[in-house]
Amino acid sequence: MFQLKWANKDLWSSDSISAIEPSRIDKRNITRVLKMDWEEHCVECAIPECYQNCPLYEQRKDGACARFVYGIIPNRKFSGHYNFGADVTFRRWGKIEACLQDAYPVRTISLFNTMINYSLSGKIRKWLGRKEKTVHTDVAGLFDEFVIECYSVNEEPYKLICEYFTENNRVRNTKYRNVLNIHKGFNHFNIPFHLLNVTAMEGYIYLYPENSDIEKRLIFTWLDLVKYRQPYVPVKETAPKVNTTKVKCVAWDLDNTFWNGTFIEQETVAVKEEAINLVKKLDERGIVQTILSKNDFEPCWEKLKNLEMDKYFLVPAINWDQKSKNLSKIVEKLNIGLDTIAVIDDSPFERSEIVNALPQVRVYSEKEIGNILSYEEFNVLISEESKDRRNKYQKEAQRIETREKFAGSYEDFLISCNMVVEAFVPDTEQEIERCFELIQRSNQLNLSTIRYSRPQFSSLLADKQVLPIGIRCEDKFGDYGLIGFSSINISNNIPVMENLVLSCRIAQKRVEHTYMKSITALLHNNGYKELCVKLTLTAKNGPLCKVFSELPFTVKEAGQDNKLLSIQTDALMNTHPIMKFTLKDSVHNFKFR
Length: 593
Known about the structure:
Number of helices: 15
Strand order of the largest sheet: 25-26-24-23-22-21-20-27
Strand content: 25-35%
Number of strands: 27
């Protein structure tokens, strides 16, 4: 079912679309379909504030934002599930979304079911849904595929993002994410139901064009979860290639990927020159790398040492365990998100195993080695800090090893590290570039998750009523470098911290706690009694939310996805310091009033 009630035919034209091929899907072979309500939404939705503040707001008849040019029009030139195609033109940030909680399975495709879409009341539809759900309790076998069939009018190809996620206490859990390559004409996609990782009929499925600054028009003929009459043969591999998060780590397979041949069978394997070149170029971009290979560790690692390539690979997993399990351990050791990992592997079986277990991970075949640097997800910001990222991770590995051998408490261990943190106003080109990079890359320790454009970030730094702060850190193991950025707006009587972003390399080292202690003391000394913090709740910044829950903050205001927190500026003055924290003169000299 589609949300047709807001269709605006005055803005719609069917154009001269001709020679329409029939749908490839045979309704007679479908025994069950999920009736989902596909509606118009925004990928950056922040209702109701965005209705007043967002420059992209286009008022719909009901007052909501029209992210489709003319809503959803039933285009009679097409047919698929229904006797029409759902004609949509996406504006920027437009997405089409369905909620599984509100859906209900129907046993057959028929004219009767089409009539339900138009005629039957909500009560009858809910009754049908309850009846069907009592019959089908095995979610795993409820459907075979998520079928997407659509016709593109745009001349240029583009990418359509498809995502399924659930929510628990406002924390988003992405179960599946993939990119669909759309070309002019009909496009057909069959996503095996098991790849969606649906464990209960809950959560949301949505689709939206990537980088949709240019309007994209699609006519959907199928957008449904289906069960087939004939025995179903699942697609072996449907692996995501792109998501909106930049790659932070590449995991290399060895046999027939990094080198030609199988090492266990022929110890004279020849390393691929293009693989070596890619390793070095990724390292220059600040993308760390590891090994994920089913092999014997000692001979393989000795081979990498002889090639002088071992230094490029952190926490290698060279063993015979399941690759998805090894990858989970690597992610934990590096303290990064699964959606920032990319795997290069020649085996379709191994790539499929990883994607099925860890759908957030992107996988690539060995045939893509020569093209990877041109992919958008590898186009990362490069600064002096990022060029030295591998070395900083290696220092962190030394810290972890020392911590594991340390006999005292974790706090005692942190004190023994002789950590020194300093806060300053960034003013050099290198400092500003690194702060901008942190804003763009960090997710787990990010207060606002705002991704500023360069002009916006420059304006923020130039605002005389905003105190911008860069944060550096070092300890006895080495220099972390510039690992944080914060901004505090003092335009009102109560200062408001609008940004706080930190590198994941200093997570759980209580730098955040010490920073808050020093900043509140600074504000207190300048006559302020209260500090407010604008916290945006996302699926990824739980670690930073935890920090504020550990400090004596109170909730001043609470929205659906955000909170305004408050703390008295003298509340942390008597807490025990575990590291030295210095505020540079550039911070002390800021004109607060």
